[in-house]
Here is the input.
Amino acid sequence: MRYLGLILALLAPAPAFALSCMAPSVEHSYASYAAAEETYVVIHGRLTLDMSKLPRGVVNNRMPPEQTNVKGHIGGLMLTEAGFTQPFEQDLTLEVSCLGRWCGMVQNGEDVLAFVRKDAQGYALAVNPCGRAVFSAPKRSMLKRAKQCMKRNDCTAF
Here is the structure.
């Protein structure tokens, strides 16, 4: 009987260890940030940061912190009704969050399309494992969709 219990225990469903995220899209991000109470700006530019400050996921069987703030800088163009036309250079705080063992990730020096929050403390960019606020190496079509969302003041028509 002991063996039967062991076999049944081994065959029991294991807990899900994979992170399941809805695929991020520029349209969904634009719509949700446009509806937010906070103020957001959409930036196409280069993100710089100290990679050594990012959380690394599970290390020595220890889970990462839920959020790590990392200083960074973004330089590029802000989205206006005319497109990505207004120069934008700002220091910002990357709010890197982790869900279990998975942490948001960005790379130093990469080209991004970012939804950056502006508040009394300055600028902040949420970086989480499921994406949404930052798109790495954005394609022209993504930039075009963001511009169309701004022109229409609505992203639900896509």
About this structure: The mean pLDDT is 86.
